[in-house]
Amino acid sequence: AIGVRRAAQRKLVHELGFKAEQINLDDIHYMGRFLYKAESNDQWGEHELDYALVIRNFDAVPNLNPEEVAEIKYVNQKQLQDMI
């Protein structure tokens, strides 16, 4: 899944403002993929194949791109499980 990890690295740079050299591709772990579909209005929507990836012990500070990300939240494993 090296292509998926490279794409994730690009998105982390573009959307969260990290520097590419802060993100080691070997630290990005592929967890699975899923189909995502959401309607925005009667004309537009999203229908895509998305990937679930995890980076553990990553302590860089994000610089959010406001056109891509409204907010982020750091969670531990229990919090994530509770959210699911």
TrEMBL record:
Residues 5-80 form the Nudix hydrolase domain. One of its GO terms (cellular component) is cytoplasm. Signal peptide: none annotated. One of its GO terms (molecular function) is isopentenyl-diphosphate delta-isomerase activity. Pfam families: NUDIX (PF00293). It comes from the Eukaryota. One of its GO terms (biological process) is isopentenyl diphosphate biosynthetic process. PANTHER family: ISOPENTENYL-DIPHOSPHATE DELTA-ISOMERASE. This is Nudix hydrolase domain-containing protein. It comes from Plectus sambesii. The lineage of its organism: Eukaryota, Metazoa, Ecdysozoa, Nematoda, Chromadorea.
